[in-house]
Specification:
Layout (H helix, E strand, L loop, with lengths): L2 E3 L13 H10 L2 E7 L6 H9 L4 E5 L11 H14 L3 E8 L7 H18 L3 E6 L2 H8 L7 E3 L6 H9 L2 E5 L9 H9 L5 E3 L21 H12 L3 H15 L5
Parallel strand pairs: 1-2, 2-3, 3-4, 4-5, 5-6, 6-7, 7-8
Helix pairs in contact: 3-4, 8-9
Length: 255
């Protein structure tokens, strides 16, 4: 199988001791392509350096809402400059997080909209982080002329899913669907149109059921693929093929 991990933080310190081996193992498991989204400005250069050595590692640059206290207004200007200089495949990981109560919502909104402006101006897709904020997110997206993107770790309703799809977004499904207790998400995974689904790990977080409480790895993406195939009563190879094509389409990647 040829799989595309549409959300993997392989650049972070959790992989400092064995990053090359993790990537090798993932590739051996069929994970040929990976999107590596940034979370804060001081990681951009190391992320870009890591991706530069492999033409199937794709960088996204952005300012994650959970690290709000570390971001500065000047970082958005730096993002625009970096995008003009290196042309990442997407702006991300950006978004709104209403789950963490101590994160100021107004500041999050301002930061998010400033980054959407960069994405809009550069005609780049966006990689969205959304927790407990889908309605606010969709309302915001309507005010921008974007070229789509990926709603990472989607866990909203079927109606919300349709609105993202109408805006040109694919929906990321990952390790949570491998847990039998995730009944609502599994039902959604069956109902969503297959041409709007991309697979992801979010490594080192949100691991699969067989590696519960362990560090997640892009090498575990085949378990997500086979779970989705089982739920939809399909051949895993067909799921791999379609979700890879979806990721490449939404990120405007061409061979």
């Amino acid at each position: 199988m040829h799989l595309f991990d549409s959300h993997c933080h392989l650049d972070v310190e959790e992989f400092d001791t064995d990053r090359a081996q993790v990537l090798h193992t993932a590739r051996a498991a069929g994970v040929a392509e990976l999107l590596i989204p940034a979370v804060k400005r001081d990681t951009w250069q190391s992320l870009l350096d890591f991706c530069a050595g492999d033409d199937r590692l794709y960088p996204a640059l952005g300012l994650h809402p959970v690290y709000l206290s570390e971001h500065r207004l000047a970082d958005v200007d730096a993002l625009a400059e970096a995008v003009a200089r290196v042309r990442p495949v997407a702006i991300g990981e950006i978004g709104l997080d209403w789950y963490v109560r101590e994160l100021d919502r107004e500041r999050q909104q301002q930061l998010f909209e400033a980054q959407l402006t960069v994405a809009e101006a550069n005609r780049l897709p966006v990689i969205l982080h959304v927790r407990k904020a889908h309605d606010a997110m969709l309302q915001t997206l309507r005010r921008f002329d974007l070229c789509g993107g990926i709603c990472h770790a989607f866990n909203g309703s079927e109606q919300q899913a349709s609105q993202y799809i109408d805006k040109g977004f694919c929906l990321g499904l990952g390790g949570m669907i491998t847990f039998e207790r995730s009944t609502r998400l599994r039902r959604l995974a069956i109902q969503l149109p297959l041409d709007s689904i991309v697979l992801e790990t979010d490594a080192p977080d949100m691991t699969v059921a067989s590696h519960r409480f362990e560090r997640n790895s892009p090498a575990y993406l085949p378990e997500v693929c086979t779970t989705l195939a089982t739920l939809r009563k399909m051949d895993p190879a067909d799921i791999a093929d379609q979700t890879t094509r979806n990721a490449r389409r939404v990120l405007s990647l061409v061979d």
